[in-house]
Amino acid sequence: MMLIDTTQAAKRMATMIQLRPLVAKDVASIENWPVYPPEFEDLDYALRKNGWLAEFRDRSDTWIYAVEQSDELIAFSILTMTSPSEAEFRIALRSDKIALGLGRIIAVDTLKRGFDEIGLTRIHLIVRKNNQRAFKLYQRMGFSLRGECCKRINNSQADFFSLDIVPHDYLSALVPLSSENHMAPIGDSKPSGKITP
User: Fold this and answer.
1) How many domains does the chain have?
2) 35-73: per-residue pLDDT in tens?
3) In terms of C-beta density within 10 A (0-12 exposed, 13-18 middle, 19 or more buried), how is residue 155 classed?
4) Domain range enclosing 14
5) 76-81: long-range contacts, CB 8 A cutoff, minimum separation 24
6) 113 within some domain
7) Does 37 reside within a domain?
8) Residue 167 located in a structural domain
9) Start-to-end Cα distance in the chain
10) Would you say 19 and 113 are in contact if contact means Cβ atoms under 8 Å apart?
11) Do residues 127 and 143 make contact, with C-beta atoms less than 8 angstroms apart?
12) Which of 18, 29, 92, 111 is a good FRET partner for 104, with 20 to 30 A between their CA atoms?
């Protein structure tokens, strides 16, 4: 039996992840990604023609990042302003990249950009109550539970937890994350709200 050093594997995976501004050709690629498995089928709309990218791509107060692993588009993340110095965070991974530890790496890098480059003082999100994996991840990352809400999405009611994080909590959570070698390097790209051609 061969043992695999998961710490080294996680470190290699993190160094292969890069965020960059989303460009127009990425949108078509994302809209054609395979559908999510049944566990996440309620989230599949976010990837499609009238999904999150259509909702946010023309907003000047929004930063959309394409996420590449070894030059392959595997995810995207969004920070969209909700008030001065505050933004909502969203993330979507390609279906074959779910549950590999990439969500944490991408989220950390996106939060870092939000706090360090954009100058946000609070980042918040909502997560479906039935998505316990994501809920627990966000709590481990330093997000605090702020409440619950119900939203109508694709003609269905969905129940959510509302969470947020501030720079102090984010920085406190980095120590355990970096000791687990789940920190992602920061790319050279500057934040941009628009999708470029």
Assistant:
1) 1
2) 999 888 888 888 998 899 999 999 999 999 999 999 999
3) exposed
4) 8-179
5) 76/22, 76/26, 76/30, 77/19, 77/106, 77/107, 77/110, 78/52, 79/110, 79/113, 79/114, 79/118, 79/120, 79/123, 80/56
6) yes
7) yes
8) yes
9) 49
10) yes
11) no
12) 29
